Amino acid sequence: MRKAMRTHLRMWRWRRFLGYGLLGWGLEVAFTALTDSIWMRDRRLKGHSYLWMLPIYGAGGFLLEEMRARLLRRGAPRWARSLAYTAGIYAVEFGSAALLNRAIGDVPWRYARGINVRGYVRIDYAPFWYLCGWLFEPLHAELCKLERPARRAERLTAPGEGAGARPSSSAALASGPALP
Fold first, then answer.
1. E strands along 21-169, which residues?
2. pLDDT tens by residue, 131-150
3. What's the whole-number average pLDDT of the chain?
4. Domain ranges of the chain
5. CB 100 within 8 A of CB 108
6. Cα Rg of the chain (Å, integer)
């Protein structure tokens, strides 16, 4: 029983990890497309990212989850939590850049423009990261919905429905069209 529960929890963690990773990828592609469109006048809206970013965004999401739990226990207001998330995002970006530089000899996103630290992070992106931090909590709530156990039997038969009762709309959709 406990082993099955641990396996179940591990599976949900992978879903959240992939959720954070894929959402991060999507945001990065949209962000690079929009900024290149503005600064380079490239109307194709051609965005880009790196394969390295999936595990970085996934792990970053878990770091922010831990920060969220600690900050909520301390009663920090949302604006302060978002500020802390911004610092956490910078820490993940800087740390992963340093690790990649050591492992592969380069940083795929090395910044040459803007206010940057060693080309690893751009300080002038702080408003964007703050907005991402502000939106993290609603995103976290949505990703946690993936962890709810499926209650197929409850969806197929609503409370108060007996054998002769007309099925609810969700039960009718799940079982197919109703016969006259």
1. 116-117, 121-122
2. 999 999 999 998 888 776 65
3. 81
4. 8-146
5. yes
6. 22
User: Quick one: tokens of 147?
Assistant: 């962890």
Tokens 């060693």 locate to 118
152 phi, psi to nearest 5 deg: -60, -45
Which residue type occupies 169? S
pLDDT tens, residue by residue, 49-75: 888 899 999 999 999 999 999 999 999
pTM, whole model, 2 decimals?
Answer: 0.71
Measured CA distances, 47 to 25, 83, 149 (Å)? 10, 27, 36
Q: What is the mean pLDDT of residues 158-167?
A: 51
Amino acid making up residue 80: A
Q: Which residues, including other chains, have CB under 8 Å from residue 36's CB and lie 6 or more apart?
A: 42, 45, 46, 47
d(CA 33, CA 143): 26
Contact (CB, 8 A) for 115 and 123: yes
Report d(CA 159, CA 88) in Å as an integer.
45
